[in-house]
Amino acid sequence: MTTTIRRDFPRAVCKIENTWITMSDGTRLATSVWLPEDAEASPVPAILEYLPYRKDDSRAVRDSTYLPYFSGYGYATVRVDIRGTGGSGGILYDEYLKQEQDDALEILNWIEAQPWCNGKTGIIGISWSGFNGLQIAARRPPQLKAIITVASTDDRYADDVHYRGGCLLASDQLPWASRMFVLNALPPDPHIVGEDWREMWFERLEKTPPYVETWLKHQTRDEFWQHGSVCENYADIECAVYAVGGWGDAYTNAIPRLLEGLPGPKKGLIGPWSHGYPHAAIPGPQIGFLQECLRWWDYWLKGVDNGIMDEPLLRAWIQNSVIPTSYYDERPGSWVAETEWPSPDSQSHKFFLGDGILDDKAEFEAELDFRGSQFNGSSAGLWIPYGEEIDFPIDQRSEDDLSLSFTSSPMKEDMVLLGNPQVSLSIAADQPNALVVVRLCDVSPTGKSLLVSRGFLNLTHRDSNDDPVPLQPGKFYQVTIPMDVAGHRLPAGHRWRLALSPTYWPMAWPSPQAVNLKIRTDRDSWLHLPLRKPKEIDAMLPHFESSEESEPIRYKKIRPRRRARTITHDIGEKKQVIYDLADNGYTHLLDLDLEMYGKSVERFTIFEDEPLSANIESEQELGLRRGSWDIHVETYSAMSANAEQFFVINKLDAYEGKTRVFSKTWNTTIPRRLV
Questions:
Q1: Closest-CA residue to 468 (of 221, 264, 270)
Q2: What residues are paired with 516 via a beta bridge?
Q3: Using one digit for the tens of pLDDT, what is the confidence trace for 449-475?
Q4: I want to staple 635 with a disulfide (CB 3.0 to 4.6 A). Which of 50, 182, 199, 384 is the partner?
């Protein structure tokens, strides 16, 4: 990856290290602002990023690489710590609450009133700030003219770290909650808030809850998840939306839905990237994303007719077939474009499920019986990859062998997939509570199996995510399982493979009892692929500029970040343990004279044929040090279940130096509702 570091900009940039925006209830939000030096004499549009990830330490380096970049081209960039995080006062009780949106509206009012702002604003954000960008846009603040939302979702229940297809996303719900648990437990920096830091810290320690408890209490798509899900009414959003994501990330399904559903101005961009901004995300190729953002802002905030809205609605990177591995520096492929979505030119190709085969014709009528292995799913990779060495799904042959698999004949010509594959199954289970996971793979002539897409369905949610209904054991149901959107080129000579399983640990929390599935083949079960033919427009697409960013603040890596993942099997006990280490290393922020460090350890344990043995443990540690100010926090979270209940433990310890100054434990039991 080659990224140019910019130090020279058309307009000189200055930074307000911290200022305060006071909310109507008196809570002060910590805010950093980058400005063109002449902004008060010549006011400019403003761009907001609004996050809980601590602008003055954990995100200080990252923020410095792109927010000043926009200011160098004539924008004020405003970075705000959400209430209860970083230097901001108050408590952050959960993700995406109405309070978060209400504060954002007051922030935009404050920005508009500043002498350096001309009254026009935009919002940029990735992940959390991509989510709230959409949510704030749905509140229609008059100052907001456009947003750029990266790696986000329009549906908090169906497409976030909590549930997929009604299945509990075990790999991420508790681990993500525990990471927020420890991050929220850090104090504000005395350098920012002064002598009140300790009082604010202890209020956070006492009042900020472990979020997983609330998430587990809402196992269906109720009002809790509907709030903040802009798919409930796309027409609420009137400003221009640029939706961006990557095939290597978990948050890509929302892009085609937004392009189809939003009534106002919109564009979509999907590259090969994992969970990061496209000028720096792995795998490459990276693009000049900051320059692309400037084109968007110039059009919508400055009225520059640069042609960006004359370009195709969607631009997507079609990935070529590769040897499956846990890391890719780049994914080879090519850019294509669509002027409408759904594309009127998409061609549906249907494969019927036969005797272990996928076939264009339905010629094999049978009932296939299959029992799931609790060890299926360990080759799945991470649900949210960040482009590190352990992130991506490896060769799927071991998973295919633990699944009920159907493989096509070698294709006679290349096939290009763009869109959401879909599976229709006539299916029965021998238990009232069961799930099915479907995987689509590209099988090379050597036999290597590359994951292309997957989908989840809790079969009790077959008719509704709002009101699940138990299965009648032995009864066949016709179900449809949407799979993740994908852009993939299957070369001639390769084969498609569809694999089905009632287990997928640790991504999907297991059903209470081991499950046997039956599948009816012939015309009752089939795979639909949305295929794309080449278009003239593909060869006419302009090239993106090369990747650039602004010069980061000065820092020194005392100990580099380290990632490790191991999978161990005890053959005698029929036990599997997945161990995941993320050691963030030790970093010294030189300009702030602040040292920070952190570590995360997660363990996923299960025994074969014993779904109730599933157990997750997450240990987190974060620390900050400046001279004699020495703080660190430690958390432990664990989750297990029996057939009727989930059991959750959360522990929090906080230290000044080596002295523990706070300790609290939460023990919670939550009923299972057909999960």
A1: 221
A2: 371
A3: 999 999 999 999 999 999 999 999 999
A4: 182
Are 263 and 234 contacting, i.e. CB atoms less than 8 angstroms apart?
A: yes
DSSP state of 286: -
Alpha carbon 147 to its chain centroid, in Å, reads 18
pLDDT tier, 364 (very low <50, low <70, confident <90, very high otherwise): confident
Domain with CATH 3.40.50.1820 in the chain: 7-156+237-308+322-341+535-553
Q: Token pair of 644, please?
A: 């009727």
Q: Which of 369, 402, 376 is CA-nearest to residue 510?
A: 376
Q: Residue 125 pairs with which residues in a beta bridge?
A: 149
Say how far apart CA 99 and CA 426 lie, in whole Å.
45
Quick one: CA dihedral 221, 106, 180, 670, positive or negative?
negative
CATH class of 347-534: mainly beta
Do residues 52 and 30 touch, judged by C-beta distance below 8 A? no
Dihedral (Cα; 108, 114, 118, 120), 10-degree rounding: -10
Torsion angle defined by CA atoms of residues 303, 304, 307 and 310, in that order, rounded to the nearest 10 degrees: 0
Reference 242, options 270, 217, 219; nearest CA is 270
**Which fold would CATH assign to domain 7-156+237-308+322-341+535-553?**
Rossmann fold (3.40.50)
d(CA 433, CA 471): 6
Averaged pLDDT for residues 91-120:
98
| CA gap 83, 406 in Å, rounded | 51
Q: Considering the entire predicted model, what is its pTM? A: 0.97
Tokens of 509: 């929390």
Q: Mutual orientation of helices 128-137 and 98-113 as an angle, nearest 10°?
A: 80
- Residue 194's CB is within 10 A of a number of other CB atoms, namely 9
